[in-house]
Design goal:
The structure is a homodimer of 330-residue chains. Chain A has 330 residues and is α/β, with parallel strands linked by helices. Chain A has one domain: Rossmann fold (3-Layer(aba) Sandwich), CATH 3.40.50.10680. Helix content of chain A is 38%, strand content 17%. In chain A, the strands form four sheets. Chain A has a seven-stranded parallel sheet with strand order 5-2-1-9-10-13-14, sandwiched between helices. Chain A has a three-stranded antiparallel sheet with strand order 7-6-8. A two-stranded antiparallel sheet of chain A has the order 3-4. In chain A, strand 6 and strand 7 form a beta hairpin. In chain A, helix 1 runs parallel beside helix 2 and helix 7 runs parallel beside helix 9. The longest helix of chain A is centred in the last third of the chain and has 17 residues. The two termini of chain A are 32 Å apart. At the A-B interface, helix 3 and helix 4 of A face helix 3 and helix 4 of B.
Chain lengths: 330, 330
Amino acid sequence: MNFVVFSGGVGGAKFAEGMARSVGADALTVIVNTADDLELYGLRISPDLDTVMYTLADVANAETGWGLTGDTFRNFEMLGQYGIEPWFRLGDKDLATHIIRTNMLRSGATLTEVSRALCARLGIRSRVLPMSDEPVRTVVETDEGLLTFQEYFVKKHCEPVVRGLIYEGIDEAHASADVLRAIETADTIIIAPSNPYLSIAPILSLPGVRDALLNAAAPIIAISPIIGGQALKGPAAKIMTELGKVPSAVTVAEKYSDFINGFVLDQKDTELQLDVITMGLGPLVTDTIMITPDDRARLACEVVNYADQLRPDKMGGCKLDDVPKLSPTT
Amino acid sequence: MNFVVFSGGVGGAKFAEGMARSVGADALTVIVNTADDLELYGLRISPDLDTVMYTLADVANAETGWGLTGDTFRNFEMLGQYGIEPWFRLGDKDLATHIIRTNMLRSGATLTEVSRALCARLGIRSRVLPMSDEPVRTVVETDEGLLTFQEYFVKKHCEPVVRGLIYEGIDEAHASADVLRAIETADTIIIAPSNPYLSIAPILSLPGVRDALLNAAAPIIAISPIIGGQALKGPAAKIMTELGKVPSAVTVAEKYSDFINGFVLDQKDTELQLDVITMGLGPLVTDTIMITPDDRARLACEVVNYADQLRPDKMGGCKLDDVPKLSPTT
């Protein structure tokens, strides 16, 4: 069985981790947004790849939503002494990831190869695939002018009003061969509850990805990151409003409607069920909020079983009792 | 007044720090060996430059002889988790120096410019000049084959028998314009008690440096790093023996004899005085061992006064009572 999850950062990473336990790590491929990537002090940083990788390895910092648990910031303090403007914090241990990535890329490795090597060292058995080996960078058009994604997200705390989003380099970039093959050979494809505009849209906008999804044999299911008109984390609802959309799970379903076969609504949005059914999607309505590792596994298991109902040949679903437990992150 | 000190790592750095307090930081230029430099994980490391810089900024780790005092090694531990062979330790704070240096060099700055920027941020008023902006790398010919300097020094703990030394790139490299100007305009030039073969020889071997010294108006004084046939620190005496030389201060004096006007012998080597006088050098015999910051200042002050006697026009020497104290490094 091949399960493919499209993911951004925290929400997608949590869901992917639940999937890894529910279907077995070996059966999982995570396709990760890289349009948030940045170069900082000459180091190549891939925030979403790292969040997915650290979460799968159970070393992610759950409190901050980025970096490694229990990391320290001595290097960052010293950079400050050297006069580096302290807007993007990198932990001392986290920095090892960026140093190795940068060094491997400079030596000619692809980002896909780098991710494979890093994951192997962290004991991750799932495949974590960057969406592309070529640079795509989200630029946010705001009332304060053009901002790189991290300037908007980290430096400006998502405060500027968003007028539009540009995925710089997207037309020259390609989905990696591994990504296209994963979609093609998938038995189930799931769009994690990640930001549709900042995390999923760059992946979908890569030449070849939307066609691959339209041609995919697997059922494709999207999980709404919008619950009761709000995003659990991040600026998704705010951006939707600023772009003139209704911040609602229905808007998310519409955005994916040309290629999805199923949609997962949070139980708080039960009243939206009919709208989704009208779009030809019989939604799964459930608790989609992932606070504990158990929540992740339960949601993943339910989505796997839901997907199984969407295909003619049942593949044998997920039994929650059989899913290994993960100790709650401290 | 312009004082110029030629320096390698620890011993030279300590002497330079004593000089900075004795003659005033603004009056000091330190010309530093860069033939020990290395690239590690894509980062450019300049051990001697850093030791001099950290010592002048009073943040050097006195216990280890490298890195910053009170540094931590979280990054290094994480690199280990990624499978990096742990032979060259870089502290978390120390890493900031290498990250900034690497980034500035990649952006087209010279090593001289990088050093100026780093020193400015650390509040260092002396000029710390890399001997060259071009790469020179010491390769050690040993009974175990060719080793890079850091392989020999750090990985192999100086254990292999040295058969010869190659300063790779030396013929294509140039002393920087700042270095040549510093020598030309110096009032006093001092060769610090650094390793003559590993630290001072690369500087002297750079095209132009020996001529500049021969043409210099300033008295040139060398301080012996060999005391009682031993080096206080490092493999100088061992290397001298392995290269077929007598490990003695006299051998050091001979190595520099074509351009020095004065020589500083440790009091333990009083019996070598006559040999040095025979070479036409009336040596200063004193306690050259620098344990405390006060030792550094005393030695520096004595050498400054000794230099003053070697020129026709006295320049006003150093009064030890006027030298500011540095609290003993903890």
